[in-house]
């Protein structure tokens, strides 16, 4: 039982980390202020349980202020972890208070565990994936009935802007259009059939559409529903336009739209245009007005419902197109349309794609911020904190970064800037093909493979870069030398191959053979997979993982950020690269008993603008002496570090420093120390 | 080519270490450094070992020495192999000194194979000769943990149940090349009650952690040469006997040393177990079958009787009646002169140790020395002789 500024919190563990206490303190202040918060705390310090126990306690004490907790995480395993912690907390509650649990928690993970009992809408705690709240297509189905007095938590939210953008962006290829064509034909046939058997059904629908979407409007005004960003407010006051009101007309309309898109894909050069331009063009060419386009998504949904089509998944293509139609006609800003006749990598193969790309992540998340009284954005790596409120366009009441209190320095970040021959190491474009750099990168990995036990994870900036380097290493015989020390596994874009490699990698770490996993920043491995203890004793980041800057979508987005949010291109690119680098290296430290080396192999990391964007808990362990090391120096430091870390380390060594009992926590001195953990920005 | 980088490395090593110490001083909030933790564990070892535990007096220990490529590393001087072998020599001597009725065998592993350097035997000389020879071995390839353990089991499993079965691995490499799944072997080791301990020369390897945890052994990684020696000496003291090990009475013979005259008839029938180079007239005669041995302790090759001398048995005894642990108190409390009663050095550490029976104070090092080697408090003895 903890006392957090007057709020009694049941905490299900005997010991608490100081930063957990500090985290709860900040969290409570955020809830008190009924505002939004951005909190960064290193992974493995019990973020989840701190969040859960504080918010649950808050709910119990102030049931009128906060009635619901919505916990959003990214992947299914993460959701399961949350549920596990929650279960522990609930058990502790019933043991402490002696009464049976009147709390209802609901987790939506995958379809196999899905339950749609209406009572679940009244659950006190909801745990699910981001998409249920952010993706307009799903949010409408799942999340619209959540009350205003909810606390929304986005965990692992360092990539939330990309999730927002993805949920609002549409890519249309020729294949999509072909599948859409089939869908439309199926629709037409079904309509024909129903018309012969049950014409009243279509008439009913027609009547409903004449009355308009008033119902939805009433609901929104009375604050029952979460607003759907796809469906802007104005639509609700209007009835579905006559041109697409009957089913046949609508199908005809879809066909016309489809033909238009097909013609647009028949290009030989890259086209980029704004949404108004696109709308004008479509009006000129096939006389499709803006208004019916806006109702396209809603109209299709109504039709599918009327036709009682069970398997909606089959109609994903036509749903996609209709969503595109609605979005393109609704938003005149924040989106761009890019039609590319071929991919950059394969300029000879025609594969036209229409990218309807969202450039403003705040569009998707705006309803969430507007609707819910407290939204908490949290992750292990959110630095620099101030950029998130800017790109997501909200005003937080608390922004804090927490450090990790440690009884022993269990992370060792090293910046290797030079090879043994003093050649500067860098992955920047000019030196990318440089033989000396590649060789020095090779010798770094080789030396590390000889001194680091069990698993090493190495990250490259892209698949292409990895391929080039590995090929060069093979020719220089470096790969063979490495293989004397450890087995080598490689991540590929293929998910099955990668999971196979991962499995074998873990086996090799387990039985003492030792292994190296070569993977890619922004890949599957860098985002979702933890390398606890022996699965990752060192992580090597070869180069700075800048996003591929030649992409037109990115260029458009950068331009937009500059014009709308006054964020300079370079700032954003560096921010994005550093958050990915931090994600990659953060994979090895998953708790206080864990330890690992973090090697940044690029001299650019030593610069203040890069280093300053790393999370504080990593930054504070980078000493001036480890800024520009040669490979040999790094090896020496690593050897020393690994020996130190291999010394026996028991729980009692942590007690009082980085692990506290209740008595220790309540001491005056400790409270003073704790107040220094949070770093407000 | 090898010369250049090594020299810079050595220089860097010295430089980095001093800086490392400085860094730890600076970060005031994180004052518990690894050294501090180590100091605590050092003390803990002494205090812990003085519970009422049964210790196995008769030990069978197989020493596995890694002779793989990584032993050529020069972070121990002149290289890991030479330094380790030298330390192992002192260990062997100490081992037989403290455990006279125990046996020891040495296995080396390199190039994915394991070989026996010496068989399980009770004679320190043989082992030391073999170790001296082994300095010249070429370090090759990778070690094989599986093969070494397997080889050790082959002999250990035939040892009687009342004796301890132990394996101590000195592992320098961070990888092991195994012909089969080592987890199965760990299970076998566990069922045979073989205790495996590992001393790592470079870093913590997962498989060793599992191996030692499962078999009840200890796992340590060295920091430097003196720490290495300390860790090795930990294994001189017999481990607590598992409660499940059999208790049995063992027949022992206490032969007398007799110098036979040339005319003696029995001298002809004598067997000499020592290398055979020096045939001597004198020797120990087995009280049961009158076989002759030049050295004790030994197991009679004729009738299988364990032959020991009384002092041997007595030396093994201190494990059973250990010296009481000294009480720790902060240095500030000490009113008298702050000098250690044993080494006469000034007491600078933050805590001192005093003997509960005679109240003499000692420093940490002397405390360890008294408990590890002397097994009696020098001041108590002194008082006894001068009443």
From TrEMBL, chain A:
Sorted UniProt keywords: 4Fe-4S, ATP-binding, DNA damage, DNA repair, DNA-binding, Helicase, Hydrolase, Iron, Iron-sulfur, Isomerase, Metal-binding, Nucleotide-binding, Nucleus
**Chief location category:** nucleus
GO function term, MF aspect, one: 5'-3' DNA helicase activity
Naturally occurring in which organism (per UniProt) = Cyclopterus lumpus
Protein's UniProt keywords contain Glycoprotein: no
Q: Which residues form the signal peptide?
A: none
Taxonomic lineage is:
Eukaryota, Metazoa, Chordata, Craniata, Vertebrata
Q: Which reaction does it catalyse?
A: ATP + H2O = ADP + phosphate + H(+)
Similarity section:
Belongs to the helicase family. RAD3/XPD subfamily.
Annotated GO biological processes are: DNA repair; hair cell differentiation; positive regulation of mitotic recombination; transcription by RNA polymerase II
Its cofactor is: [4Fe-4S] cluster
What single Pfam family name could you report for this chain, choosing any that match? Answer: Helicase_C_2
What name appears for this protein in its UniProt entry?
A: General transcription and DNA repair factor IIH helicase subunit XPD
Q: Where in the cell is it found?
A: Nucleus
The Enzyme Commission number assigned here is 5.6.2.3
Glycosyltransferase keyword on record:
no
**Domain annotation Helicase ATP-binding: ranges:** 6-204
Recorded GO CC terms: nucleus
Which InterPro entries does its entry note? ATP-dep_Helicase_C, DinG/Rad3-like, DNA/RNA_helicase_DEAH_CS, HBB, Helic_SF1/SF2_ATP-bd_DinG/Rad3, Helicase-like_DEXD_c2, P-loop_NTPase, RAD3-like_helicase_DEAD
UniProtKB/TrEMBL annotation, chain B:
What name is this protein filed under? General transcription factor IIH subunit
Does the keyword Lipid metabolism belong to this entry?
no
NCBIfam families membership? ssl1
Residue ranges constituting the VWFA domain according to the UniProt record? 60-202
Q: Where is the signal peptide?
A: none
**Where would I find the C4-type zinc fingers in this protein?**
286-303
GO cellular component terms given for this protein: transcription factor TFIIH core complex; transcription factor TFIIH holo complex
């Amino acid at each position: 039982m903890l006392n957090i500024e007057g709020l009694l919190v049941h905490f299900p563990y005997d010991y608490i980390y100081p930063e957990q206490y500090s985290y709860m303190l900040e969290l409570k202040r955020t809830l008190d202020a009924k505002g939004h918060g951005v909190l960064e705390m290193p992974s493995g310090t019990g973020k989840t349980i701190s969040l859960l126990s504080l918010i649950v306690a808050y709910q119990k004490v102030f049931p009128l202020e906060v009635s619901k907790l919505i916990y959003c995480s990214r992947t299914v395993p993460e959701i399961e972890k949350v549920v596990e912690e929650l279960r522990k907390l609930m058990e502790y509650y019933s043991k402490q208070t002696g009464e049976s649990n009147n709390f209802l928690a609901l987790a939506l993970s995958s379809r196999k565990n899905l339950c749609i009992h209406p009572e679940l809408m009244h659950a006190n705690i909801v745990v699910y994936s981001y998409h249920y709240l952010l993706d307009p297509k799903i949010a409408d189905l799942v999340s619209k009935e959540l009350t205003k007095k909810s606390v929304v938590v986005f965990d692992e939210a360092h990539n939330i802007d990309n999730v927002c953008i993805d949920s609002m962006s549409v890519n249309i290829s020729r294949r999509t259009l072909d599948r859409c064509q089939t869908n439309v034909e199926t629709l037409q046939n079904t309509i024909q059939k129903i018309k012969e058997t049950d014409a009243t059904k279509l008439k009913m629908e027609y009547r409903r559409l004449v009355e308009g979407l008033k119902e939805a409007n009433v609901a929104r005004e009375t604050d029952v529903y979460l607003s759907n960003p796809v469906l802007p407010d104005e639509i609700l006051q209007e009835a579905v336009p006559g041109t697409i009101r009957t089913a046949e007309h609508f199908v005809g309309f879809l066909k016309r739209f489809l033909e238009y898109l097909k013609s647009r894909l028949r290009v030989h050069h890259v086209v980029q245009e704004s949404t108004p331009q696109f709308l004008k063009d479509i009006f000129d060419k096939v006389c499709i007005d803006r208004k019916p386009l806006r109702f396209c998504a809603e109209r299709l949904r109504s039709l599918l419902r009327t036709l009682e089509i069970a398997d909606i998944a089959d109609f994903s293509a036509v749903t996609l197109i209709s969503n595109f139609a609605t979005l393109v006609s609704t938003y005149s800003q924040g989106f761009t349309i890019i039609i590319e006749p071929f991919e950059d990598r394969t300029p000879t193969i025609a594969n036209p794609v229409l990218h309807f790309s969202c450039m403003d992540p705040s569009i998707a998340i705006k309803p969430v911020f507007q609707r819910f009284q407290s939204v908490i954005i949290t992750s292990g790596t959110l630095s620099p904190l101030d950029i998130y409120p800017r790109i997501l366009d909200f005003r937080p009441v608390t922004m804090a970064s927490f450090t990790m209190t440690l009884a022993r320095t269990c992370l060792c970040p090293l910046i290797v800037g030079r090879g043994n021959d003093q050649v500067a190491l860098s992955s920047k474009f000019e030196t990318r093909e440089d033989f000396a750099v590649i060789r020095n990168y090779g010798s770094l990995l080789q030396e590390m493979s000889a001194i680091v036990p069990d698993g090493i994870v190495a990250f490259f900036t892209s698949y292409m870069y990895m391929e080039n380097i590995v090929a060069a290493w093979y020719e220089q015989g470096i790969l063979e030398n490495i293989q004397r020390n450890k087995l080598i596994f490689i991540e590929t874009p293929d998910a099955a191959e990668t999971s196979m490699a991962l499995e074998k990698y873990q086996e090799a770490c387990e039985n003492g053979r030792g292994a190296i996993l070569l993977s890619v920043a922004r890949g599957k491995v860098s985002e979702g997979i933890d390398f606890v203890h022996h699965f990752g004793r060192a992580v090597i980041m070869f180069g700075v993982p800048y996003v591929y800057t030649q992409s037109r979508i990115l260029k458009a987005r950068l331009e937009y950020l500059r014009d709308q949010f006054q964020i300079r291109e370079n700032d954003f690119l560096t921010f994005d690269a550093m958050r990915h680098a931090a994600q990659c290296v953060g994979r090895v430290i998953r708790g206080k008993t864990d330890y690992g080396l973090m090697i940044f192999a690029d001299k650019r990391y030593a610069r203040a603008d890069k280093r300053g964007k790393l999370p504080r808990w990593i930054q504070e362990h980078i000493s001036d002496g480890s800024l520009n090391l040669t490979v040999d120096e790094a090896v020496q430091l690593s050897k020393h570090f690994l020996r130190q870390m291999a010394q026996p380390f028991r729980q009692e060594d942590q007690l009082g420093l980085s692990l506290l009992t209740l008595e220790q926590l309540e001491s005056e001195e400790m409270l003073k120390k704790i107040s220094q953990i949070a770093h407000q920005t | 080519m090898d010369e250049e980088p090594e020299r810079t490395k050595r220089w860097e090593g010295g430089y980095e270490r001093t800086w490392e110490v400085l860094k730890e001083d600076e970060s005031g909030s994180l004052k518990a450094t690894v050294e501090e933790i180590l100091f605590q564990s050092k003390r803990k070892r002494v205090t812990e070992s003085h519970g009422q535990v049964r210790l196995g007096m008769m030990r069978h220990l197989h020493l596995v020495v890694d002779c793989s490529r990584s032993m050529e590393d020069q972070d121990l001087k002149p290289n890991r192999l030479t330094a380790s072998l030298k330390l192992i020599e002192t260990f062997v001597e100490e081992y037989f000194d403290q455990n006279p009725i125990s046996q020891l065998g040495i296995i080396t592993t390199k190039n994915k194979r394991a070989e026996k350097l010496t068989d399980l035997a009770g004679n320190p000389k043989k082992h030391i000769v073999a170790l001296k020879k082994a300095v010249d071995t070429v370090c090759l390839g990778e070690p094989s943990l599986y093969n070494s353990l397997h080889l050790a089991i082959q002999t250990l499993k035939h040892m009687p149940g009342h004796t301890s079965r132990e394996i101590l691995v000195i592992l320098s490499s961070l990888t092991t090349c195994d012909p089969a799944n080592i987890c199965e072997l760990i299970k076998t080791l566990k069922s045979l009650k073989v205790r495996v301990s590992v001393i790592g020369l470079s870093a913590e390897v997962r498989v060793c952690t599992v191996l030692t945890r499962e078999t009840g052994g200890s796992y340590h990684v060295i920091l430097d040469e003196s720490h290495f020696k300390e860790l090795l000496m930990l294994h001189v003291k017999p481990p607590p006997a598992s409660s499940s090990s059999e208790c049995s009475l063992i027949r022992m013979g206490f032969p007398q040393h007799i110098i036979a005259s040339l005319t003696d008839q029995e001298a002809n029938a004598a067997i000499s177990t020592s290398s055979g180079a020096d045939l001597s007239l004198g020797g120990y005669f087995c009280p049961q079958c009158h076989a002759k041995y030049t050295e004790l302790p030994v197991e009679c090759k004729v009738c299988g009787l364990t032959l020991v001398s009384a002092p041997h048995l007595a030396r093994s005894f201190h494990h059973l009646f250990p010296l009481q642990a000294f009480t720790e108190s902060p240095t500030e409390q000490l009113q008298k002169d702050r000098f250690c009663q044993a080494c006469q050095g000034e007491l600078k550490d933050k805590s001192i140790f005093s003997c509960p029976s005679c109240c003499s104070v000692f420093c940490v090092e002397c405390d360890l020395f008294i408990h590890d080697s002397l097994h009696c408090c020098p001041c108590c003895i002194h008082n006894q002789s001068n009443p």
